[in-house]
Amino acid sequence: MIKRDAEPFLWVLFSAGGVMSGMLMPALLFLFGVAYPLGWLMPPSREHMRTLIANPLVAVTLFGLVFLSLFHWAHRFRHTLYDGFQIKHLEEVIATVCYGGAIIGSAAAAYLLWHAR
Amino acid sequence: MPDIPAYTDYHPRWLRRRVSTYWWLGNWSYFMFVMREASCLFVAWFVVYLLALIRAVLQGEAAYERFLALSARPWMLALNLVSFLFMMFHAVTFFDAAPRALVVHVGKTRVPGSLVGAGHYAAWLVVSAFLFWLLRGT
């Protein structure tokens, strides 16, 4: 199912996704998930957010973040189930759900960001 | 002459000990290993959350306000707090592993691993500060 030759390529996506999510997500999650809801900081206005998302540089960064982070998740989750929990008989189903989910999520991000221009 | 073993259709029982599904609960470092692997679930959750945010911003003022209100619900706040802790754990473990995965050369000399690690942390700090500035309240 997953060819041996695809493994290094998938690992590169996993690795890049790990770095990119590590760089961007803690701050984003702290702001939107914790600081704004608790009233520690004022959230940006919708207009400000709209302008940001329409910026090509921001859009490309966001797409990269979504794409790489999803492949990071897919790869790590697949290997945890396969190697860590020894779920070997469902290998093909797990791989399809993981990488398929990553592709669908990336397509959704591309669609949203394309319409944000 | 040694006897030739009799041929049978059955292979001998493999010498494999069955490992419990909960093998990682008894040992602290195994537990941390599984928690580190589990952090990817929160990475995936944040992608879903981020896509919902982008969608709300595109839909308009009311949808954006609804998204902010949803984020302030206790269960959502709790989920995002836990996600934030896992995300910090993910970032730290990933940046700590970076010097072992990434070998950087300048000319012919190898950049020491500690410098590669420090570079990741410095970049993290700069990127986070930039995001705080970019997403300041208006």
Descriptive account of the structure:
The complex is a heterodimer of chains A (117) and B (138). Chain A has helices spanning 6-35, 46-54, 56-84, 91-115. Chain A is elongated. Chain A has one domain: 3 helical TM bundles of succinate and fumarate reductases (Up-down Bundle), CATH 1.20.1300. Chain A is mostly helical. Chain A is 79% helix and 0% strand. Chain A contains four helices and no strands. Chain B is mostly helical and 138 residues long. Chain B has a domain at 9-86: Fumarate reductase/succinate dehydrogenase, transmembrane subunit (3 helical TM bundles of succinate and fumarate reductases), CATH 1.20.1300. Helix content of chain B is 67%, strand content 3%. Chain B has four helices and two strands. In chain B, strands 1-2 form a two-stranded antiparallel sheet. In chain B, strand 1 and strand 2 (109-110) form a beta hairpin. In chain B, helix 1 crosses helix 3. Chain B is flat. Chain B starts with 27 loop residues before the first helix and ends with a helix. At the A-B interface, helix 1, helix 2, helix 3 and helix 4 of A face helix 1, helix 2, helix 3 and helix 4 of B.
Structural Rg of chain A: 17 Å
Query: What is the mean predicted local confidence, pLDDT of chain B?
Result: 91
> Any low-confidence stretches of chain B, pLDDT <50, length ≥5?
none
The helix tally of chain B amounts to: 4
Distance between the termini of chain B: 91 Å
| CATH architecture level-2 label of chain A | Up-down Bundle
Sheet with the most strands of chain B? 2 strands, antiparallel
What fold name stands as the CATH topology of chain A? 3 helical TM bundles of succinate and fumarate reductases
- Please give the domain count of chain A: 1
